[in-house]
Amino acid sequence: MSKLLALEDVTAPVCCAPLSGPALSEAEAAELAKVFKALSDPVRLRLLNLIASAEGGEACVCDLTGPFDLTAPTISHHLKVLRQAGLIESERRGTWVYYRVVPDRLTRLSGLFALPALAPA
Amino acid sequence: MSKLLALEDVTAPVCCAPLSGPALSEAEAAELAKVFKALSDPVRLRLLNLIASAEGGEACVCDLTGPFDLTAPTISHHLKVLRQAGLIESERRGTWVYYRVVPDRLTRLSGLFALPALAPA
Questions:
Q1: Chain center to CA of A33
Q2: What CATH fold (topology level) applies to the domain A26-112?
Q3: A53 and B120 in contact by Cβ < 8 A?
Q4: Which parts of the sequence belong to the HTH arsR-type domain (chains A, B) (predicted)?
């Protein structure tokens, strides 16, 4: 949890600034690079897609292993990487763990690639 | 160049669909993962930031080495990775090579993280 909080803290300053905006500091770039490293795996992208598109905004871990030809521990590892990058959060209710995206984090990434300041040359 | 075109072709179908939308195919996820791998390096993120925020929308390679404590060949390598991921394009004019972002690619990534379909649970 402290890892997640540390990541949140450091990336907070880059919040909604697009890449076409102010200069990224070395520290901001290093933290953002970690988030993109979490996204640089096809299974993790498909898991994030399944969670983001799940009905009611959350997905039971019991529904996240079926689509993959992978063991439950491997899926759990990928979910942990996404969670540590602050992209998803989890909650245990009874037997199962439920995952949902962290909208704030996804909105920040969306804003990063927005190009409001780019005018035709 | 063929590598760049191949990447464009494969990612085209995921165009503007957000992660909260239709299911990503394995092929789409694999191609997207490559783009995020290109972004998972702090130097490349800062280069992309410098290029995206450059006056007139383009940056001379001669202005891209100064901010880093790295050799010109290392910077060239990082620029090549960004170019192969379809994030920037380059043009030689006289002595120097000039880089600009590919707005369409950045807009696609922005759309990927948009959350239009997410309603509060």
A1: 12
A2: Arc Repressor Mutant, subunit A (1.10.10)
A3: no
A4: 24-121
